[in-house]
Write a structure and sequence with these properties.
Number of helices: 3
Radius of gyration: 15 Å
Number of strands: 4
Helix content: 25-40%
Mean pLDDT: 92
Strand order of the largest sheet: 1-2-3-4
Order of helices and strands: HHEEHEE
Length: about 130
């Protein structure tokens, strides 16, 4: 177990397949137009964690009322993309969509380039249960 698994992801499921398959998925899924539109970059180097990093930040990423905090819609989009990628990986390439998503906004995100981490906690033949954190 690597140091990145020591925390909340320690109980997560491994992403199916070897590292070279994850690299192929990273190239394929990382090229999706929505990821580019959000200004994000996909990282599947960890055997358990899907990482989606904000790498390009524009004025559209900023919240309302003149704040420098990240816009809630951008946060939701980043989380949803990371969860969808996690679902696709664990369902071995099947098309996946979000069935339910609950977000707890604990405090404003003022980090210029935050990273979403998402893991699969359990799966059935038709549903993957994931957790994501920004």
């Amino acid at each position: 177990m690597t140091a990145s698994h020591a925390g909340w992801a320690a109980e997560a499921l491994d992403i199916p397949g070897p590292a070279d398959a994850r690299a192929q998925w990273q190239a394929c899924l990382g090229a999706m137009p929505i990821i580019d539109h959000l200004g994000a970059s996909l990282d599947l180097s960890d055997p358990r964690i899907v990482r989606l990093a904000l790498v390009t930040r524009t004025q559209a990423h900023e919240g309302g009322l003149g704040t420098d905090a990240l816009n809630g819609a951008i946060i939701a989009g980043l989380l949803d993309c990371a969860m969808s990628v996690t679902g696709v990986l664990h369902m071995r390439g099947r098309t996946c969509g979000t069935v339910q998503m609950s977000i707890q906004f604990m405090k404003p995100v003022r980090t210029a380039y935050p990273v979403v981490e998402c893991v699969a906690m359990r799966r059935s033949p038709s549903v993957v249960f994931v957790e994501a954190r920004l």
